[in-house]
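Long-time lurker, first post. I've been practising inverse folding by hand and with some scripts of my own, and I keep getting stuck on stretches where the structure tokens seem ambiguous. Below is the full token string for one chain I'm working on. Before anyone asks, I'm not after the true native sequence, just a reasonable design that respects the backbone. If someone could post their per-position residues I'd love to compare against what I wrote down in my notebook.
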């Protein structure tokens, strides 16, 4: 029987033959044309994988996403949905007969069900508010999902309150607490709650109606933050702190009955962050990721396992000294598959709290199963196959598969092959050097298109944000190496002190020292690249960075004139004033050892505004007016200082963007301004 006979079938061709084909440098339109491939979900029998493909609609500025299906053994990929708008988050029912997903085709985001033996999708939930993240109960008779409500109010009352607020002529905002805004959204009084609905009728119940925090934590938490127990009697979920939200990182894992009731805090003994709960296959344990230090959002994410009935937690992964980004139990429950941030790459590995488990398991012959590029979302089935997203610096993300030994790695999808076949893209090259204290530091070099080793090329020096982040061997949707290199620049990107994936000590060494070892690492890394690659032109260099990278660009402006031009996006300019206007207060309080009135000397010492008198280098300043993490006043203050000092400068302010520039029209402007500024000073 042919699967999904009533649905549109679209064949994907692989890249055309490159014979006699002239490749060209990448353009902004190419970046916007990339199809996003995400959220692979392997069927219960391991034969098929459902996933999401997203494309930007240049006219509306929104993304259109659809569900696709491809065999895990390889073969033709088929499109399952065609409705305009967003179809996403596919999840297989336990019997493999139905795929639940979220669609806004009815006018709001609701749960829909698609039969796998053919036929049309039907709408399951019909709530007056949007829902997201459905996951099936073990028996397939219920689904859990999340939706935003006013605590203590039902969905109908929430919808009415929203309508009344929209109709009110006064748009005043009144608050009695922090945090009153987060990332780029104001607090409207609603919280994300955990619901359970009947899989036949769609009748739904809020399991935590009076909860005053978000489940999962906002703004980036997803369905990996809640899970069903194998017996279907309860769910585990991650919640934000119930108090001191603006200055506490104490997210906890809770459990609640599938019929509702008083939740139980499973991780009350840890004041750091906990999350991503997942029950063991036998239901006796719950695994989760955990950070041990309160108030530090970049502490090592460690995988832990705890008895469901209560008791001390077992450390599974801290010996790896790499942050665990996500994980899944093996079908046997004896070990875990994990995604690790590892030395400029994102790898898939196997681990267990007892090393003998891996040694004695004939199916697992190495710890790191997939070690090249960046491998993020993954899904497993029956301990036979792993399907994962894989991207590299010179190729957008596609779906790949391998066996659980990491062998037989193969591409399952080719959504971007035809686009990439037309472009001249250079693979990022890794290098290492001796940084501050003589420690080994890693960096990347990307050569420009049309590279000729006998020529000299201008250098674009990229500085990542965070500061606890990293440049990876990845296809970045915003700070894309290839598009930076396209006009003829050699790109150098360093992972200095504070970067993740190089051991927690290395990450820790930037806190309370934003301008010491990290600055030395950056400058020594650039010097190493200039000495190692003779085609780099030391007389034509520019530096660019966003967020903390913008801070460092601002710091560079006051401490060296070796660059011909600088670009600062969403960068911190004045650290004392930034504290009073940002939202996640735990961040500056950890990074600077307290509040500005507790540590005024450190705040002022590490503020680029303290060195404005040294500003000389032409600078492009870009910022989003909806950036509540680094508010727009930082960019305005920087631009004012540059102008008052008579330094050539330009302010590009996006009134409808937050910390990241995301809208297609704005992204085109951002890239054009960036390339225009570089051309003015480097060509």
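-- Answer (accepted) --
I ran through it position by position. Result:
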């Amino acid at each position: 029987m042919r699967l999904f006979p009533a649905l549109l079938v679209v064949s994907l061709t692989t890249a055309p033959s490159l014979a006699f084909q002239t490749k060209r440098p990448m353009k902004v339109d190419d970046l916007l044309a990339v199809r996003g491939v995400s959220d692979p979900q392997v069927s219960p029998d391991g034969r098929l994988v459902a996933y999401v493909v997203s494309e930007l609609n240049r006219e509306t500025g929104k993304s259109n996403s659809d569900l696709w299906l491809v065999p895990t053994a390889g073969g033709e990929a088929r499109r399952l949905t065609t409705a305009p708008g967003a179809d996403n988050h596919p999840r297989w029912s336990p019997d493999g007969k139905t795929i639940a997903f979220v669609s806004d085709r009815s006018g709001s985001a609701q749960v829909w069900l698609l039969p796998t033996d053919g036929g049309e999708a039907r709408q399951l939930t019909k709530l007056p508010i949007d829902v997201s993240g459905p996951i099936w109960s073990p028996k397939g008779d219920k689904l859990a999902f999340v939706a935003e409500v006013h605590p203590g109010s039902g969905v109908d009352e929430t919808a009415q309150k929203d309508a009344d607020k929209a109709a009110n002529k006064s748009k005043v905002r009144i608050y009695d607490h922090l945090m009153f805004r987060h990332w780029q959204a104001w607090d409207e009084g609603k919280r994300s709650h955990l619901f359970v609905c009947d899989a036949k009728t769609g009748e739904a119940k809020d399991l935590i109606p009076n909860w005053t925090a978000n489940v999962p934590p906002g703004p980036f938490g997803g369905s990996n933050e809640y899970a069903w127990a194998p017996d279907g009697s309860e769910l585990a979920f991650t919640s934000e702190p119930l108090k001191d939200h603006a200055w506490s990182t104490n997210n906890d894992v809770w459990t609640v009955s599938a019929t509702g009731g008083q939740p139980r805090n499973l991780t009350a003994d840890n004041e750091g962050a906990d999350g991503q709960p997942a029950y063991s296959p036998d239901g006796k344990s719950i695994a989760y990721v955990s950070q041990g230090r309160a108030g530090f959002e970049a502490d090592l994410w460690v995988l832990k396992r705890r008895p469901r009935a209560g008791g001390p937690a077992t450390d599974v992964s801290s010996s790896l000294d790499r942050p665990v980004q996500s994980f899944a139990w093996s079908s046997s429950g004896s070990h875990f598959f994990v995604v690790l941030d590892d030395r400029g790459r994102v790898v898939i590995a196997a681990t267990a709290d007892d090393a003998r488990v891996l040694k004695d398991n004939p199916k697992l012959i190495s710890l790191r199963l997939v070690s090249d590029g960046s491998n993020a979302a993954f899904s497993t089935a029956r301990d036979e196959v792993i399907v994962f997203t894989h991207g590299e610096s010179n190729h957008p993300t596609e779906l790949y598969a391998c066996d659980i030994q990491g062998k037989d790695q193969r591409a399952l999808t080719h959504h971007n092959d035809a686009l990439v076949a037309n472009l001249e893209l250079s693979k990022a090259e890794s290098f290492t050097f001796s940084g501050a204290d003589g420690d080994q530091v890693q960096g990347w070099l990307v050569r420009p298109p049309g590279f000729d080793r006998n020529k000299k090329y201008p250098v674009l020096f990229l500085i990542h944000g965070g500061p606890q982040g990293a440049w990876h061997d990845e296809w970045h949707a915003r700070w894309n190496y290839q598009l930076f290199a396209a006009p003829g620049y050699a790109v150098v990107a360093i992972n200095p002190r504070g970067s993740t994936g190089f051991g927690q000590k290395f990450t820790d060494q930037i806190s309370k020292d934003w301008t010491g070892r990290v600055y030395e690492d950056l400058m020594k890394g650039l010097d190493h690249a200039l000495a190692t690659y003779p085609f780099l032109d030391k007389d034509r260099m520019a530096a660019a960075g966003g967020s903390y990278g913008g801070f460092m660009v601002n710091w560079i402006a006051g401490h060296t004139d070796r660059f011909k031009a600088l670009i600062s996006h969403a960068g911190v300019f004045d650290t004392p004033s930034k504290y009073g206007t940002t939202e996640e207060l735990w961040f500056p309080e950890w990074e600077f050892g307290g509040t500005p009135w507790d540590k005024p000397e450190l705040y002022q010492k590490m503020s680029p505004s303290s060195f404005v008198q040294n500003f000389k280098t032409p600078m492009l300043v870009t910022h989003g007016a909806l950036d509540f993490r680094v508010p727009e006043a930082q960019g305005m203050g920087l631009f004012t200082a540059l102008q008052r000092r008579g330094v050539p400068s330009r302010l590009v302010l996006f009134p409808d963007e937050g910390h990241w520039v995301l809208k297609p029209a704005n992204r085109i402007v951002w890239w054009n301004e960036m390339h225009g500024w570089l051309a003015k000073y480097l060509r």
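A couple of notes from the structure itself: Confidence is low (pLDDT under 50) at residues 1-19. Residues 661 and 667 are 6 Å apart (CA to CA). Happy to go over any region you disagree with.
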